[in-house]
Design goal:
6 strands; about 220 residues
Amino acid sequence: MPHAAYVFDAYGTLFDVHSAVNRIAGRIGADAVPFSELWRSKQLEYSWVRTLMDSYRDFWSLTGDALDFTFQKFPAVDRGLRDELLGAYRGLKAFPDVESALRSLRQGGARLAILSNGSPCMLESAVAAAGLDGLFDAVFSVDVIRTYKTSPDTYRLVTQRWGLAPDAVSFQSSNRWDVAGAMRFGFRTVWVNRPGQPDEYGDLPPARTIRSLAELLDP
């Protein structure tokens, strides 16, 4: 393997953040897609704002806060679905390309980890629900330092724990802002651009852009 470690963002990269809403889209109705998109965007916005304010609230709390705001923006959606949606978020589906790519990397001798904004309880349940138990050497949650990506301290969790130089780590994320932060820190970055989004943060480019984690196995 060309890198000592392969580290993956969790939400949006390994786990489909929209699968919670998709499970009950028929009960949400015509607003299901924008409802899910707003829930996700507010979840991220709250993490960035809380970091700038130095007023940490764990990611599970922010997920609930974002959902409550989303219900207010879409009053036609039944608020009685709140607990069911949060329960579904704990067991998000993994993308179809995830398990086989992780198993192949591991069989090739790679050290694998997750580095996520997610709270430890969220990550534990997501990994178990997706059937990915035993594939990771470590699951790093920013909760231990009480700040969110893209603070350099979040990426430093990996290098300090494993005693690695940043350029020994291949970091994979579907979130372009996360790729920019990791690249600025010194990781070798891979943007997992499944939907083919336009690029941004042109001064902090990824080393590679792929549409599927299966492409990590390509020479």
